[in-house]
Amino acid sequence: MQNEQEYYACQGPISDPGAYAHLYRDLRNDVESLVRVVQGLNVHIFWAARYGLELTPERQAEVQLRTIPRRLERALQLDSHPLAEPRALEKKLAGNCRDFSTLLVSMLRARGIPARARCGFGAYFMPEHYEDHWVAEYWNIQQGRWVLVDAQLDTFQSEKLGLTFDPLDVPRDQFIVGGKAWHMARSGAADPNTFGIFDMAGLGFIRGNLVRDLAALNRVELLPWDCWGIILSETLDDVDELALLDEVSALTAVDAPDYDRVRACYQNNPPLRMDGSLLSFVNGNMTPVQIAL
User: Fold this and answer.
1) What is the pLDDT of residues 209-218, one digit of tens each?
2) For the segment 121-161, what is each residue's pLDDT rounded down to a tens digit?
3) What is the spatial distance between Cα 82 and Cα 272, in angstroms, rounded to a whole number?
C-alpha cells in the first residue's frame, strides 16, 4: 500500500501527461524553474487583456480543456518548441488558476516530487474578499512540510496585486482551502458571501470548492465549474448532508490533512466521489460530461 508521499508522487487520471510525458524529460527539478515553465506556457484568461492579448472565443474555449494531455496537445498546436522555451504572448495557452496549478502538479509528480492541487480561495485579489482560486502544494523534504505555490502569479501579477509574500510559499492565511472556508462560514468567523467570484458567492459556492478540494486530494483535479453529487444538491439544510460536509471540512481544513482518512472519506461516500459522470458549465449551460477515471 502506498504511503502519502508515494501516492502524491504518482500521476492521477487528469494530471498524467500520457503520450506527452517525453515533453517533461529535459525540465529541471526545482520548483521555481517549473513554475517559470508553467507561466511561459499559459496565460490566464482573466488577465490576458491586461497583458495586451485579446482572446477570440475559440481561444477562450481552451479553458475547457480538462486533462493535461489535451492541454499539452493544444499547447504544441500553438507552438511546437520545447516546453521550457517561453512562448510569445499570442502563442500561450489560455487557462485559469486550476490549469496553472494542475500543470505544475503534473510536472512535479513526473520528477518524483509529491504534489497535489488545492481548491479554495485567495485572500490577495480583492480587499475583504476571498476569491475563488486554486494553487499547487508540494512536499518540501528539506523542511518536512507541505508548501503552497501559486504558479499563476508572475512578476507582473504580483506587482499589480501588491503582494507582500513569495508566491512560491503562500502563507496559509492568504490561501484558504475549501475545508477551512467552510468552517469559517459555518462557525460565523466569516461572512459566506465574501467567498466567491463575480456574482457567485455564499455557502453553496463554498460547498463546491470544499468537495473539489477533497477530490483534488484524491488526485482528481476537476474544472472549477465541474459539478457532481452533493455539489448539485438544491438545498443547504439537509442534516445528513451538512454533517458529511462538516466532516470533510474537519479533515481537509488543517495544514496537513490525514492521508488515510481523506482517502477513505472520498472513497466511501458516493455523494462526494466523482464516479465518471458530472455536469459542467459550458457556454452558459450545465452540460453532461463523461470522464474516464
Assistant:
1) 999 999 999 9
2) 999 999 999 999 999 999 999 999 999 999 999 999 999 99
3) 38
Say which residue the cell 508522487 belongs to: 9
Q: Rounded to a whole number, what is the distance in angstroms from the first to the last CA of the chain?
A: 20
Find all residues with CB under 8 Å of 140, minimum gap 6, and list them: 146, 147
Cα distance between residue 46 and residue 150, in whole Å: 16
116: CB partners within 8 A, 6+ apart: 8, 105, 136, 137, 138, 216, 217, 219
All 3 cell numbers of residue 247?
Answer: 466532516
Residues with Cβ within 8 Å of residue 37, at least 6 apart in sequence = 27, 83, 84, 107
How much helix, strand and coil, in percent to the nearest 5, is found in the chain? Answer: 45, 20, 40
pLDDT, tens only, 12-41: 999 999 999 999 999 999 999 999 999 999
Q: In b/e form, how buried is each residue of 215-239, taking b as 16+ CB within 10 angstroms?
A: bbbbbbbbbbbbbbbbbeeeeeeee
- What is the rounded CA–CA span in Å between residue 211 and residue 249? 9
pLDDT above 70 as % of the chain:
100
The model's pLDDT over 183-206, given as tens digits with 9 standing for 90+, comes to 999 999 999 999 999 999 999 999
From CA 38, how far away is CA 28, in angstroms rounded? 12
The rounded distance, in Å, linking the Cα atoms of 32 and 43 is 18
Q: Rounded to an integer, what distance in angstroms lies between the CA atom of residue 288 and that of residue 138?
A: 32
Residue in the block written with cell 491586461:
50
The Cα–Cα gap between 141 and 160 comes to 32
